[in-house]
TrEMBL record:
One of its GO terms (biological process) is dGTP catabolic process. Residues 62-255 form the HD domain. PANTHER family: DEOXYGUANOSINETRIPHOSPHATE TRIPHOSPHOHYDROLASE (PTHR11373:SF32), DEOXYNUCLEOSIDE TRIPHOSPHATE TRIPHOSPHOHYDROLASE (PTHR11373). Keywords: Hydrolase. One of its GO terms (molecular function) is dGTPase activity. This is DGTPase. The lineage of its organism: Bacteria, Bacillati, Actinomycetota, Actinomycetes, Micromonosporales. Pfam families: HD (PF01966), HD_assoc (PF13286). Its EC number is 3.1.5.1. Residues 1-25, 186-208 are annotated as: Disordered. It comes from the Bacteria.
Length: 506
């Protein structure tokens, strides 16, 4: 885009209705459309990491997570705009508006399916192996599909409005990974060295395309349209500045509130975390000279897991990884988390709730204050990023969550059951769609999604009808809450005796 063109006017470019009056705030109107969407409301019933019903306590779901990301993202944007040097650079990169960041943050998880990241992995496997969809499933791409394709807002001037009719700036800000699984842009980011974060092809699946991507092939035209105002300002594979803020805010919120949740639930225990961090601090020099094979053999001994994290950061993110910053981050996390928050078990008291709030507020302020902007980011970073020490702190907090929560056998048992549930549900819906005697009795939403998916495909597409049915099933299942997915499988399996109350998912 030429420097002389008005970037704000181009950033408004949508379908012709979303722009509105430049004196007002069309970006705020975008935010309001997102919040009023049924897809946003359903996030209250979608797992973040663990199902709320399984914890017996209040834990974050996708809705509360999205609200926190929006809060943090807006704080980052406003802080950066308050400094002239950041403000000028952000303008050169295509602009930064807190309303855009907030809207994109609220929308970024709209497409996440039941049962959190587990559901995302299971649906991707089923979509590719069972339903024959080359694009598979990806939560970010599904969010983009919702705001551009599957959500129906109504009529305007005699036309049906497909999607949420958002401005180009907000749609572009949703794109953490502004590429498709394969093919766009060219050269595809997965072929670059180093590849941008998320663009790497999974090991053992050379034909699988990028691990993460922001849009399916059916939405690539819209992706290109949303990104057009930023052409010449940032590379095709790079996030917009507002997308970079949203992505960073997502990382911050995720790292902090997952620690909160598992402290409340009683899963994070001071002794286990203290043993891991303190063992590494005492023996960092000895561990640093051990071979990878030796570390693997003694992986369960304290200090080994976090040493492996240090090496992984060096291997994947050499642009920022630094041993001194890593050691400082470990010390800070030990002091604030182990010797602070975890020093007293959560008992539901007012004092315990205050401790959680203090921890969250202190960490959020500290990380937001450490945000900066660079004109020349690494291939694995956006233009907006954390300072090195704080970047390492986020990695260590996320490590604590992965090591002491996600690796637990009891969580694995629960998640394997959820994975089997999703697989059975997809198979049951496919059998229903393939039954010629049931055509007139399909759920109306599923029927509509089949028609939409078929209309998107070129008439010459091989197995067009089958692929349309596959995509419709994925769209349908991804739009359910955790409880709706369970209730629907119960009904399809004949286990539910509540005939009419099951209709809410249809």
């Amino acid at each position: 885009m030429a420097e002389s063109e008005d970037p704000r006017a181009q950033r408004l470019s949508g379908t012709g209705r979303a722009g509105g009056d430049l004196a007002g705030s069309p970006f705020r109107a975008d935010r309001d459309r997102i919040v009023s969407s049924t897809f946003f409301a359903r996030l209250g019933g979608v797992t973040q990491v663990i199902s709320p019903g399984g914890s017996g306590l209040l834990v974050h779901n996708r809705l509360t997570h999205s609200l926190k990301v929006a809060q943090v993202g807006r704080a980052i944007a406003e802080r950066l705009l308050a400094r002239a040097e950041h403000r000028d650079l952000l303008e050169k990169l295509g602009g930064c508006d807190p309303d855009v960041v907030e809207a994109a943050s609220l929308a970024h998880d709209l497409g996440h399916p039941p049962f959190g990241h587990l559901g995302e992995r299971v649906l991707d496997r089923l979509a590719r192996e069972k339903l024959g969809l080359a694009d598979g499933f990806e939560g970010n791409a599904q969010s983009y599909r919702i705001v551009t394709s599957t959500e129906i807002r109504g009529e305007a001037r005699g036309e049906t409005i497909i999607g949420l009719d958002l401005t180009a700036a907000v749609r572009a800000a949703m794109l953490k990974y502004p590429w498709t699984r394969r093919g766009y842009p060219a050269p595809h980011p997965s072929t670059l060295s180093p590849a941008p974060r998320g663009a790497t092809v999974p090991a053992g699946d050379p034909d699988g395309g990028s691990l993460k991507f922001g849009a399916y092939g059916t939405e690539v035209r819209d992706l290109r349209h949303a990104r057009a105002p930023f052409e010449g300002r940032i590379p095709d594979w790079q996030q917009t500045a507002e997308a970079s803020i949203m992505d960073t805010a997502d990382d911050i919120a995720y790292a902090i509130h997952d620690v909160e949740d598992f402290y409340r639930v009683g899963v994070l225990r001071q002794g286990e975390v203290a043993a891991e961090l303190s063992a590494w601090q005492r023996h960092a020099g000895e561990l640093a000279i051990e071979s990878d094979a030796a570390l693997e053999l003694t992986a369960r001994r304290p200090g080994r897991s976090i040493e492996r994290l240090r090496r992984t950061l060096h291997r994947k993110d050499s642009w920022v990884s630094d041993d001194e910053a890593f050691a400082t981050a470990v010390a800070h996390v030990r002091r604030e988390l182990v010797d602070g928050l975890l020093s007293a078990p959560f008992d539901g008291s007012v004092e315990a709730e205050h401790a959680v709030s203090r921890f969250s507020d202190t960490w959020t302020r500290g990380l937001v204050d450490a945000i900066t902007v660079t004109a020349t980011p690494s291939m694995r970073s956006g233009h907006v990023l954390l300072s090195p020490v704080q970047w390492h702190e986020v990695q260590v907090l996320k490590f604590v969550h992965h090591r002491f929560v996600l690796e637990r056998p009891d969580l694995a048992l629960h998640q394997r059951g959820q994975a089997r549930l999703l697989g059975t549900l997809v198979e049951a819906l496919l059998a229903w769609l393939d039954d010629p005697d049931e055509t007139t009795r399909l759920p109306r939403r599923l029927h509509d999604l089949v028609e939409l998916a078929e209309a998107e495909l070129d008439p010459a597409t091989p197995h067009r009808a089958a692929r349309a049915r596959g995509r419709a099933i994925v769209d349908f299942v991804a739009s359910l809450t955790d409880n709706q997915a369970v209730a629907m499988l119960d009904a399809l399996s004949g286990r539910s005796g509540q005939l009419w109350t099951d209709a809410f998912v249809l």
